[in-house]
Each structure stands twice: as C-alpha cells, then as structure tokens.
Amino acid sequence: MIAASFEYDAPSTLEDAIGLLRQYGDGAKILSGGHSLLPMMKFRFASPERLIDINGIPGLSYVKEEGGLLKIGALTREAEIEHSELLKKKFPIFGDVTKLIADPQVRNRGTIGGNLAHGDSANDHPAVMLALRATVIATGSGGQRSIPIDDFFTGIFTTALDHAEILTEIQIPIPPKGTGSTYHKLERKVGDYATAGVAVQLTINDKSICTAIGIGLTNVNPTPLRAERSEKWLLNKQLTDENIAAAAKMASEDCSPSEDLRGSEEYKRAMVAVLMKRMIKKAIERANN
Amino acid sequence: MNKQITLTVNGAQHKMEVEPRTLLVHLIRETLNLTGTHIGCDTTTCGACTILMDGKSVKSCTILAVQANGKSIITIEGVSTEGAMNPLQEGFKENHGLHCGFCTPGMIMRATELLADNPNPTEEEIRWGISGNLCRCTGYNNIVKAILYASAKMRGVPTASTEPEFV
User: Fold this and answer.
1) What is the ipTM of this complex?
2) Which fold, A179-288?
3) Based on the structure, what is the number of domains in chain B?
4) What range defines the domain where residue B25 resides?
5) B65-76 pLDDT tens trace
6) Cβ-based burial of A83 (10 A; exposed 0-12, middle 13-18, buried ≥19)
7) Contact assignment for A104 to B3 by CB distance below 8 Å
8) Cβ–Cβ contact A50 with B under 8 A
9) Measured between CB atoms, which of A2, A41, A104 is closest to B132?
10) pLDDT tens for each residue of A213-224
C-alpha cells in the first residue's frame, strides 16, 4: 500500500521544525517513530500534505532524573525505555508497559512522545501517564509550556497541542518511599491493542493507609480515562479487599467501552474491574518492597 | 518533490532520488532488486520485511525510504560472507527452521539483533524476542531451536542438529 503524495522535510533543529509547522499549518504533520502515522497514511485514513521528520533533531532522546522529576525526551524509543536501567530501578511500570507495546521491531522505532501526541486512547502510555500524574512539555515558537496530563487528551485523536507545537518532554514527579506502580493490559495476542488496560500508582504509609493514588484506563473510553471516583474512594483508606473491589466496580461503571472485535461492552467493563483489582494488589506488593 | 538520499546497503553505497512516499521495502526490493526481504502483511504485523537499520531490527514496510538517508542497512542478502552461511542461516538449515521459507529472512534479521543484544538467550527470551515475526507454517519450535543453535555456535559451544519437530 502506498500513501498519497506528500512533501517531506527533515529539519535538524527544533526551531526549524516549528517554523515549518507555522508555515504549513494544519496540512503538516510531525513524523516521529511513524508507527501509528505511516500505517494510517498507507490505508489513506490520513493524507497530510507534508511530513516534518523530527528524527534528525538532536537532544530529544533521554531518560534522566532532575530536580525531583523524571524527565523523558519525547523522541526516546520504546526500546530505550524498556531497557533503561534508571527506569527498571525506579519505575518498573515502564517495563510493564513497554514490553506490551507492539513488538520488538516496532519498539525500536516507536517513541513515547508520539505514543502520547497521537491522542489514541488505545495506546498504552496515556493511562500510565495519568497514573503517574505526568506533565507534558510542548515547545512552540513562543517557548515552552507545561500541560498537565489531565488537560492533554481533549478528544478522539485530539490533544491540547497547538498545530505549531511539538511535544518535547514528559515530566513525572518522583514519588516518595512506599510507592508502587504497575500496568497490565488484556490482549488477544502479543502486540495487540488492549481489550482493556489499567495503570496504577499508589503510596501507602506505615499505618497501611493509601496516601496517594493514580489510576489510568486504556481503550475503554473515547479518550484515555482517569478512574477518578475509584481514586477518591481509595485515598486515605486502608487498601482492604472490600475497598479495592468497590473501587474496581466504580471504574467499570465509569468507563465507556464500545463493543468491537475484542469483546462486548459488558465484557470490557468486567475486565476493567478484574485488572484493576490485580493491578492495585501488585502495586501494593511493589510499594512494600 | 523527490529527495536525494545516500544510504549504504550491505556495505555498498547508493545515491538516488526517491519520492517521499516510497517505502523502504520497495526501494530495497524494486530499486535495488534485493528480493530476499519479503512483504507479507504490509501492515507492520508479520515481520517478513525486517531488516537492520544502523544495527536495529525494523519493519521496512513502515519506514519511508527517505528516512534511510545516511543510514546503514543490512538485508538477508548481506548476512553471509563469501557464500558461507552465517551461524543463524546454518541453524535454520540444521534444525529445519524453515518450512515454506517466507518468514525466514525476517526471522533471521530479527534474530541477528536479538543475539547481538543477548548472546545467550533463554528459550522464553527468544520466543518473546521474535514476537513480531509470524510464521504461517507455525514452525516456531524449530525456529527457536535454530536460534538456540546459532547462539551456541557463536559462543563456541558444541552444537548438534536436531530431528525436525512438527507439531
């Protein structure tokens, strides 16, 4: 399959890339890993007039800790996240999520920034970012601005990014001791999009009270969804089986999955509850270690 | 507008003009006539078009030829030296790692990076490592054995051919 014709630019600086976005407006699309965009173009679901390839721009690929924040460059490949020693040690949730994203070859190309900027609730990083309460850094001609993840996903395949802005960094607060995080998705086969997926990060104190919690859901809503009612229910409570089951039920009620090849609406709601119970228990285990 | 690109394929440098929408797999197969790289699904699923780009295994049906500008590409035609099979090719031959052979080039290119990253993988790591490559003959058991054979051979451990396993 061949995409419709387009013009191609490969700027070597962020300024040039932003300049091209400003010049060509909505007809231009950023090409990052390309593993969502190029398949859409081959199917002609998308026909941008111009691709602006940011792969040659230096300085957008890194994983580092700085000023109490974990900072991930938007062009960091999924494979680099999967094998990052820093993330393995401090954020095992990234190991959980990356190994479930597509397959090794796709992870050699796909980037975390592209995964978020695509605005697809079937992608896996959005739920994780909701759980970790991330902030997205967007760079435009006027400089940088911070977008809290809760304001980032505005609709189906739509984000808060302006057409002349580029997602350049993801920032995640380093959580206190006693924090555990994890992600899992139910998939029909390796590399599939989620039937349902749940990301959890929680903190428990020495009295076994949950002092912070973030829960994100994958592919059970038009946009990536924070399980807000479940979070509120569990906050400042002991994470007993009863409390966890009640929270899981709330999330299964609050999401809006649609029936498709991966299952009925009822099945997906049930799987949200099952996965949430498992993920909360696994996060507690990690918090205790 | 066409773009001028320079790339190295199996050690040979090529300079050419490409239309931006040309896929890398089409450049490899149709312009360079290296038809060992296969197109199976054309949707980033099957892995038959896997090649190495700067040492990383990638699916060439989902990369634009212009994106290979300045890169070094290795295809299945570039893995052997002077007509002698490399350990992976030998492993596939000795362990009946191919039935129809369609997935084999992609399997070998993927396994090349897998063994470069992890010279002594477990069976589970191999199965996980080739999860982006489909074999429609379902010959996975023998493919895994072939990769284990290559791993042993490359580490200087004695290897043995196995009886074919058809499940």
Assistant:
1) 0.95
2) Enolase-like; domain 1 (3.30.390)
3) 2
4) 3-78
5) 999 999 999 999
6) middle
7) no
8) no
9) A104
10) 999 999 999 999
